Amino acid sequence: MPCGDHLELSIGVMEETRFKKKHSHLIKRLAKELHFTYEEMEVIMLIYYKIQKMNGEKSGGVTKVQLREILHVAFDMTDVDLTNDVVMSMVKGPSSFVPMSTWARVMSLFLRGTLEEKISHCFKVYDVMMSGKIGRDIMVRFLRNCLVGTSDEDSEDAVKDLVELLTKKMDMDRDLKISFDDYRQTILKDPLLMECMGQCLPSRLSVHSFMISCMAKVSKL
């Protein structure tokens, strides 16, 4: 569980108060920008702080590895390669740490993101070359991981069929690549295709569990 044993590191009232006061301006700014109230934003930041403390008092923050673990354990995102792509698309730069503001934006997207925000996020995950277009080779890369229980030969044929199907469905300008506009227009018409190349968002059940176990306990965190 997201607020289960691995996040049950207790902190004293004074320590919690100091943390909130130290980051009050950031919390206030992010609460205005994201989909949280000020009190909810405090909870999100306290969760970050608790995870950070697991690395020691002088830790530079929550690590990308820890974020991947949270996505796996708390949000049912179990595909290791794809989860890594998700983290890399959301946390830019060579640092191994996730900035507080980035953590807040990830939580805002996953817990209360709009359709447009989710469309933008998923496309960025799939656009691993950051070219603004998803080519057939990239589609093959993702779709191979979506097929299980088939032989290599059958799998390759199935992947080719899926690539053809998605290209026909999404490639609006017929350039054999899927641009952001192609992808967005398709998803607005059929939202069920949003994660057509693999899971980029948490399951609904995991989001519900997180909200119940964490966000509903504002006074206890």
TrEMBL record:
Keywords: Repeat. GO terms for molecular function: calcium ion binding. It comes from the Eukaryota. This is Uncharacterized protein. It comes from Photinus pyralis.
